[in-house]
Amino acid sequence: MRDILFIYSARFPVALTYMLQSTEYKAKPYLKWLWRTSNFRAVQHRRTLKRTSYARMLLLALTTGMATELLAGLVFVALGIATGHIWYWMVGIPLIIAYPIVWSHLVIVPLELGRLYIVEPRQNKQIKASAKTFAKHSAIKIAVAGSYGKTTMKEVLKTVLSEGKKVAATEANHNVAIEHAKFARKLEGNEEVLIIEYGEGAPGDVVRFTSITKPTHAVITGLAPAHLDQYKTLDAAAKDIFSLADSVSPDNVYVNADSLAAKPYIRRGNIGYSVAGAGDWKARDIKIEVNKTSFNLVNEDRSLKLTSRLLGKHQVGVLAAAALIAMQLGLSDKQIITGIANTAPFDHRMQPYKLGGAWIIDDTYNGNIDGIKAGTMLLKELKATRKIYVTPGLVDQGKENIKIHQQMGRYIAAAKPDVVILMQNSTTDSIKQGLIENDYVGELKIETDPLAFYTNLDQFAASGDLVMMQNDWPDNYA
Amino acid sequence: MEKLTVAVIFGSRSAEHDVSIITGISIIKALDLSGKYESVPIYIDKKGRWFSANELKDIALFSSGRIEGFLNKQKPILIKVGDGLQLMKQGLKPKLLNIDVVFPATHGTHGEDGELMGLLEMANIPYVGCDVPSSAIAMDKALAKIISQSQGILTSKFVWFYADEFNNSQKQIITRLKELKYPLFVKPVHLGSSIAISRVKDESELINAIEVAAHYDNKIIVEEAVNSLIEVTVPIVGNESLQLALVEQPLTTADNFFDFDTKYIRGGGKKSNGGGKQTGAQGYSKLPADLPKELYLLAENTAKDVYKAIGCSGIARIDLLIDSKAEKVYFNEINPLPGSLYAHNWREAGKSTVNLVSELVDLAKEKHQKKQRLQTVFDTNYLKQY
């Protein structure tokens, strides 16, 4: 009852504003979240509303709107009491009862109008201007696209190539057209290499990014089911991603050959990279430890001894590709070795850290099945007194959701962790099914409060433990 | 699977009241995180009133000083003891809550000394940790040494006496103490957490130290210091089959012993030898202790011998004094409820806090089940003669 009455409290507009903020003020995910939420008291579970000027304005508008409707309802009811006329009651009562529902929907109207008539035209102008900047710029332009691993590849390339070139790269995972435009505005003009990450989300995205940024080189990091709510099929996503190869010379296209789904789309002349090496270079003597990966990159007459703080066999291909691109751009062996040595995990991506005597591998930004495969393989490979695997599952897996989570369960079982901890949600049963199919015999725990678990990890882990944490769900998916 | 209801009792009328709050709340947190138990906090305030409310799980209620105001709005609970233990919340509609297992987290007097265990034995309910006799012996430093000595375990030379004896015939006591060599340690027999312990170098300091100890306890022990000292402590878990954590070496202060402030106040935020940021006693510890292999093993074995001699079950921590030159290990004290369960040491030894509390609850059930098999009543014709 308290949960139902909450929508009539002064905290309800705050909850709605938080939901809008968490979904980046986008109508579709906000409405999806709104419609499936039964307890609005619990939406601000992991975080709370950041009271930015925009959020404050929205909160004020929402509160004023709701208060006005409530007041109007009360006036009608008062008139009903004063006059005894039933019609006043019939208007006033629905106004009072329905105001939270009405305003939780009405709030998106000004947002959408603003996006349509103010934000988008302004952004389109900036994007057009950036196309001219990219066209004029004489630097080598490397586009990085794929369903996963883009940010890692971009950062590895930036770190390695910076040893011998002036490099600029798009920031963090800022990978859509408007962010490319902002990146273009910051360029000084004397950069030798530009690295641009493409964040595809819907059919036609990569074609559009390519026409604006005009890449000379392309790296396709892999193909996996992602954004299938928009692409519908993996083939549609593949066609969009591989359209990048149309505008670049085939021998300047590097494709992750470890990605089985990507293999059929590799074209003649493209350079494959994988755990076996890159192009004609072979990876030998691979050694994986909890805080580093090392291997020798060899061809007929040369050998480079490479060590990186990136973790896992799946990174060997990434590092080999970066080394090969660096060679192509004229970096010396010494520069390449130093550059690879400088590569390190990024926040929440296969990032190892010590908690007491336990090793934690934080891979909570991993959101696709290939990443899960890489993480579970790493877990299998590393030595520990007790191995613990933690995940809530994946989001945005479209129609393949059940199959993908069953596969995830099979991957986890194959790593043979001593303990599997699943965060209770809609994917749990599918993961459990996969665990059973692959005869998982360890301890299975279902955690109902992920936040309590993550914030008290030190209570669950002990010295000698290895804890692999893959993916994390924000409030709007939990 | 239905969750077991575990009542965690903490606080109590003890000089270690505040330490007990930390222990109790850390146990509650681990029990809740395990997902296997429904924890029920039972807080005994300094006046001896019993309270239970979910808000008592939050350390901020105590650390902020809001606890007094909170308790003023609460009604103390009643405990119903029969075949089991029920907690009764007073009010218009009194509510009864069945408790499956009790986890005592009270340090010192009126709790760790066996008094609470007596109540739990009467209720015939499983409870974590040492039973009545072992708790009572462990909390009497003199008695624990006498029993250990009887089992061939080394202790440093000591003299014990009652505070009244000292007050009435100080000269006689001082004469008895002349058989001991300085420096000496003066301790209240029943207190833990290093409260009111003094290290004295001569007779002038001795009298003052005894007066301080007598302020806290009616029984006092004075013992010789060990030469070439390495002080270690060994946490143990188990009933018959024992598991040892790491032998831990607390690092002493300039005064050369580990007082209350060092353990619980100044320790905050210091780095241990292992590099991890830890608070409390563990902040000054070497984990594991820096000992030659033979001496490390001897310390482990002595600790196990003491645990068995005293008759401990569930959990305890044994403090040992090592003469590193003579390579001798002396039993010093036993603590039937280590502060915060010494979870930092168990984690380092490979046992997570969540697993530690779960195992302790299992051990409590195992001990209780075993005890149920014993015959405690039988029919006689005795009354017929009256």
Number of individual domains of chain A: 3
Order of helices and strands of chain B: EHEEHHEEEEHHHEHHEEHEEEEHEHEEHH
Query: Mind telling me the C-alpha Rg of chain A?
Result: 26 Å
Query: How do the strands line up in the largest sheet of chain A?
Result: 2-3-1-4-5-6-7-8-9-10
How would a textbook summarize the main sheet of chain B? 4 strands, mixed
The CATH homologous superfamily of the largest domain in chain A corresponds to Mur-like, catalytic domain
- Averaged pLDDT of chain B, please? 89
Number of helices of chain B: 13
Keywords:
heterodimer, A: 478 residues, alpha/beta, UDP-N-acetylmuramoyl-L-alanine:D-glutamate ligase, Protein-Tyrosine Phosphatase, Chain A, 3 domains, 6-stranded mixed beta sheet, 18 helices, B: 386 residues, alpha+beta, Rossmann fold, D-amino Acid Aminotransferase, Chain A, domain 1, Dna Ligase, domain 1, 4-stranded antiparallel beta sheet, 13 helices, 17 strands, 35% helix
What is the topology?
The complex is a heterodimer of chains A (478) and B (386).
Chain A: H1 2-5, H2 12-22, H3 27-36, H4 53-83, H5 86-106, H6 108-136, E1 140-145, H7 150-161, E2 167-169, H8 177-186, E3 193-197, H9 205-213, E4 217-220, H10 228-231, H11 234-242, E5 253-256, E6 271-274, E7 277-278, E8 281-288, E9 293-298, E10 303-308, H12 314-328, H13 333-341, E11 351-355, E12 358-363, H14 369-381, E13 386-391, H15 401-415, E14 419-423, H16 428-437, E15 443-447, H17 450-455, H18 457-460, E16 465-470
Parallel strand pairs in A: 1-3, 1-4, 2-3, 4-5, 5-6, 12-16, 13-14, 13-16, 14-15
Antiparallel strand pairs in A: 6-7, 7-8, 8-9, 9-10, 11-12
Helix pairs in contact in A: 2-3, 2-4, 4-5, 6-8, 7-12, 7-13, 12-13, 14-15, 15-16
Chain B: E1 4-11, H1 17-34, E2 37-44, E3 50-51, H2 59-63, H3 67-73, E4 78-82, E5 84-89, E6 95-99, E7 101-104, H4 115-123, H5 132-138, H6 141-150, E8 158-162, H7 163-168, H8 170-177, E9 184-188, E10 198-200, H9 203-216, E11 219-224, E12 229-238, E13 242-244, E14 249-250, H10 260-265, E15 285-286, H11 293-310, E16 314-323, E17 328-335, H12 343-348, H13 353-372
Parallel strand pairs in B: 1-2, 1-7
Antiparallel strand pairs in B: 2-3, 4-5, 5-6, 8-11, 9-10, 9-11, 12-13, 12-16, 14-15, 16-17
Helix pairs in contact in B: 1-13
